[in-house]
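thought: fold this chain, then report.
action: predict
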Amino acid sequence: MRRSSALALSLTTMTAALAAFGTVIPAQAQQASARLDPQALRAAIAVQPGGGAAGAVARVFTSGQTWRGASGDLVTGKQVKDEAHFRIGSIAKTFEAVVLLQLSAEGRVDLDETVQHYLPGLLPETFAPVTVRQLLNHTSGLPQDFEGAPQPSQDEVIDNRFAYYTFDEVIQQTLRPEGRPWPGPRFAPGTEQEYNSFGYRIAGKLIEAVTGHPLKDEIAARILTPLKLHDTSAPGRDAEVPRPSLPGYLPNGKGELVDVNEQGGNPSSMISTTADLDRFITALFDGRLLRPAQAAELRTLPRGSDGKPLRYADGSNCNTGPDKGSACFSIGLMSFPLPDGTVMWGKTGSDLGYKSGVFATPDLNRRGVYAVGTTAFDDTDASAIGKRLALAAFGS
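observation:
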């Protein structure tokens, strides 16, 4: 059932939901030391009135200890369970990349072959050859999803949240839109990096063309079933999220919060839990999903002829410090440096009403997963929860 009624924000229910709970589960009793501080972790995911977040769930692992926790729903006052399901947004790109890397290992897809070869006629002739690798590491120079379309209002975003777009519809309405000029390339393929979801829409269509199966079936057969990720799914046109679920809200034009837990999306939209995403990234790095040559692609940044990482297109977004402005996305993942110089690899995601992330060090000694349900279109505060969690868990 669609739950589209607006929910008034109540200070009473917000206050009742402020308490966060968490549990440390030591793998070995002698390791239950100060390495994980439950109080600091609870504080990291705590949500506050006016902070742009309704609730959060998280799971971290380091030095043999696992901590999991959740913060309550500020809107209804109900407690959020740490096993809650949530929409993972662009974390689904990592699942998609794994499928293509497996197809590469099987000799069915050549990462350095072009989109024009696999999907002739899909790109207008104004586009130079774009390789599969460039789709996956965000160096294609392709336009963004629906580039040039009028910016919708908050009410339009909320009212249209049940819309579902096939890969063909996204591709057609992006590359050959009616009523506005067709977009051209943003830069020459392979010369810069710019995060690009549209490239993964084309990658999804390529998977379906090569295998003859829907993307969700390939993800299920190659990843979900072997890893027993029973709480992860690509729901297709099913708008519902399994219970228990993390709440997500957005404000309409009147400032009333609307429950957007149920929504549409596209064939690559996915739902998961912190436990399943932790299991997924563990399998990604321990060799269960990819052969060594393909696994190496997960931590390979695109480089120019000078051997240096490519420039990020707008000079920002990726990295900090001396590396700011250079590429930080590999195939399917991104790098995330910790204060001590350790580099974690993973992916963040956004859907209407949700922000999430999953990261790990290659040796799997540090892992973290989080998801935040929002109460605002500006997700700055929701993103800050992920950073606070990383500092609380791994900052020392």
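thought: worth noting. Residues 19 and 325 are 39 Å apart (CA to CA).
final: tokens above.
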